[in-house]
Specification:
Number of strands: 12
Strand order of the largest sheet: 7-12-8-9-10-11
Order of helices and strands: EEEEEHEHHEEEEEEH
Largest sheet: 6 strands, antiparallel
Strand content: 15-25%
Helix content: 10-25%
């Protein structure tokens, strides 16, 4: 039975075999001793995304007393789920995201990243989904039409799955925005997320 630590663009956790390109966490331990998930899906608003390998560090998954490792198809998925880049393993990306938000006036220069966490993870935790016209979203943002998540890429919509993205289709007329508002601002200001290669097929 696969561990329940794979995250979809809605922020929900699933048990599927594939890991994806990146990992992350939502604070501390989210699981019971038998490796099943607790009722709560986070322990803080510090939802970060990092690389699968960093400085040759090795750790056994789901260790008792340690944070629960989460895995994502790509960064677009993580951003939609309310996460942001880690300032240790992905410092350059985290700095670019913060700089974009400072430029837009969403954060003050020198402001602690906790202010970003409160707004980005907080929006996802509260399930604050706004109905939008997808053509107004920046590339790299995700939206939901029905029960399916879609990536806006190169002006088209591509259906998301744990295995990757499907063929490009016309954008929907209206749908629910998944990527948090501040993160959409950073994408619009030029922040470019890591996207699973099937998007270019």
């Amino acid at each position: 039975m696969p561990l329940q630590n794979r995250v979809d663009p809605f922020g929900a956790l699933h048990g599927v075999p594939a890991r994806g390109l990146l990992m992350g966490k939502r604070g501390g331990c989210l699981r019971r001793p038998d490796q099943t998930l607790k009722a709560r899906r986070w322990t803080s608003r510090r939802w970060i995304i990092c690389v699968l390998s960093f400085k040759d560090r090795r750790r056994k998954l789901m260790q008792p007393g340690f944070y629960t490792e989460l895995f994502f198809l790509d960064e677009a998925t993580e951003l939609a789920g309310g996460h942001r880049p880690c300032f240790e393993g992905r410092r350059a990306d985290a700095s670019r995201l913060r700089d974009a938000l400072v430029y837009l006036g969403y954060l003050e220069a020198g402001e602690m990243v906790d202010a970003l966490d409160v707004q980005v993870a907080g929006e996802t935790q509260a399930v604050m989904r706004e109905t939008v016209q997808p053509h107004t979203l920046p590339d790299g943002a995700m939206h939901a039409a029905g029960e399916r998540a879609w990536l806006k890429h190169a002006g088209a919509a591509q259906p998301w799955s744990f295995a990757g993205y499907g063929p490009a289709q016309e954008l929907h007329e209206r749908s629910d925005r998944l990527t948090p508002r501040l993160t959409c601002g950073a994408l619009g200001a030029g922040y470019s997320p890591v996207i699973y290669p099937s998007v270019y097929a």
